[in-house]
Amino acid sequence: MHLRISAIHIMFMEVMENISFSERFIERVKSATTVGVLTGAGMSAPSGVPTFRGKDGLWDKFNPQELANVDAFLNNPELVWEWYNWRRELIRKVKPNLGHYALVDVEGFFPDFALITQNVDNLHQLAGSRKVLELHGNIMRNKCLDCSRLFENEHIDQDNIPRCPDCNGMIRPDVVWFGELLPQDVIREAQEFSASADIFFAVGTSSTVEPAASLSYMAKGNGAYLIEINPEKTPLSDYADESIQTSVDLYLPQLVVELDKIMKR
Ligand code: OAD
Questions:
Q1: For this structure, is 136 an active site residue?
Q2: Which pLDDT band holds residue 32 (cuts at 50, 70, 90)?
């Protein structure tokens, strides 16, 4: 298998923090066929995308009530569009990090793999991940508020709220706002997958936003080996089989090298 991440990448990483993989984990990997990974905003933090919670998080500086719900959009669509255009510009300037590329490799090691993301930044897809379940939508896509028609990469003129050519409804970013349901087919698939996983990783998420947060509990509750990757403790940390307090771009590339070793044994 051709890997994007190699031991050479790791040797050249500026800060080298050696991750040790437990015997329990290695044993589980040997027999695993179904592997799920749930990612959150911490996944893209090393790329330069701000997270939502904590110091310097977006929700520390901005009020979600004014920007991320449908009433806010109906009351002041210009302001909401301005905020999303700012976030899009920020995201357009950044690149996937080594953690994103490592997950593309991880996908290749297991017959049944799903990457479930709360992120809307499209960086997993840009890195090359194939099976991505987008729980919260995608900021690079838009949809009609009334008829839900999707508009890929629609150019949005900040002075003019775009209108749907079919029904004249207002066009909005295709992201899940507070008070809205997640795309039901996507969350159902994510739940079914999590419940059948042999190994499940919760990566760079505060594990506080439902229904995404429950996927990790569902996975372990149905027998998966649960690993959390997060430099900070979260409500999931004590429940997980292993909680590894490090950054995604340090852990995931080393995971790829370890999986390669295990599979070659
Ligand atoms: P949060 O901002 O709540 O949490 C980000 C987590 O990433 C925190 O627990 C950080 O400690 C961790 N983190 C930061 N840097 C990291 C790194 N380099 N490596 C690993 N972990 C790191 O983001 P989410 O849990 O994704 O929803 O938040 C879930 C949802 O809340 C978002 O999708 C968004 C938000 O409201 C919607 O917009 C619908």
A1: yes
A2: very high
**Ligand 1: centre distance to CA 264 (Å):** 34
Beta bridge partners of 116: 38, 133
- Residue range 45-54, pLDDT digits in tens: 999 999 998 8
- Residue closest by Cα to atom 15 of ligand 1: 42
d(CA 7, CA 13): 10
Phi-psi region of 62 (alpha: psi -120 to 50; beta: other; left: phi over 0): beta
Residue matched to tokens 């310097």: 56
Say yes or no: CB of residue 204 within 6 Å of ligand 1.
yes
Q: Which of 229, 220, 224, 233 is nearest to 250 (CA)?
A: 229
Catalytic residue among 2, 100, 136, 155: 136
Task: Using the atom order of ligand 1, give the atom closest to the CA of residue 205.
Answer: 25
What tokens appear for 19 in the block? Answer: 């991750």
Can you give the pTM of this predicted structure? 0.94
Task: Encode pLDDT of 112-136 as tens digits.
Answer: 999 999 999 999 999 999 989 999 9
Q: Is 205 in the pocket of ligand 1 (CB under 6 A)?
A: yes
Centre of ligand 1 to C-alpha 224, Å, is 22
Cross-strand pairs, 173: 142
Separation CA 86–CA 183 (nearest Å): 25
